[in-house]
Design a protein that fits this description.
The protein is α+β, with helices and mostly antiparallel strands and 101 residues long. It is built from three helices and four strands; from the N terminus they run E-H-E-E-H-E-H. The protein has helices at 14-24, 55-63, 79-95; strands at residues 2-8, 32-39, 45-52, 70-76. The chain has a four-stranded antiparallel β-sheet with strand order 2-3-1-4. Strand 2 and strand 3 (45-52) form a beta hairpin. The longest helix is centred in the C-terminal third of the chain and has 17 residues, at 79-95. It is elongated. The relative contact order is 0.24.
C-alpha cells in the first residue's frame, strides 16, 4: 500500500532535525520503501511517498521523527486503483431509480 506523508517543522526544532537527517539520511526502517521525498523551498514543510505492506512499519518510521516535527500519514491509491471504484460508483448511481416528489 502507498502512504502520503506530510510534515511541518517547528522553527525551534530546525537545527536538531537537520542534524538527525544528515546523520540518518531520514531512511525508513525495513519493510518501508521510500518512493520519493520533496521539500518546499523557503518553508519548513514537505511530503513524501512511501510503500509498505504493513502499516506498523510506517508507524515505526514516523515514531523516529514525532518528537521533532508534526506528521500526517494518509493511505493513498494510484489512478489505476481508484478509477474502477469511481466507475462502480457512477454505475450504481445510474442503476438507482430516482424518486419524484
Amino acid at each position: 500500500m502507498l502512504y502520503l506523508v506530510n510534515w511541518t517543522i517547528p522553527i525551534e526544532n530546525r537545527d536538531r532535525i537537520i542534524q538527525r537527517f544528515l546523520k540518518t539520511g531520514g531512511q525508513p526502517p525495513p519493510g518501508v520503501k521510500l518512493v520519493g521525498r520533496w521539500h518546499a523551498m523557503g518553508h519548513m514543510l514537505g511530503f513524501g511517498l512511501a510503500e509498505a505492506e504493513n502499516p506498523l512499519d510506517v508507524q515505526r518510521w514516523m515514531l523516529q521523527w514525532t518528537d521533532l516535527m508534526h506528521l500526517q500519514v494518509h493511505p493513498a491509491m494510484t489512478d489505476a486503483e481508484y478509477a474502477p471504484l469511481l466507475a462502480q460508483m457512477l454505475q450504481q448511481a445510474a442503476d438507482t431509480p430516482s424518486v419524484s416528489p
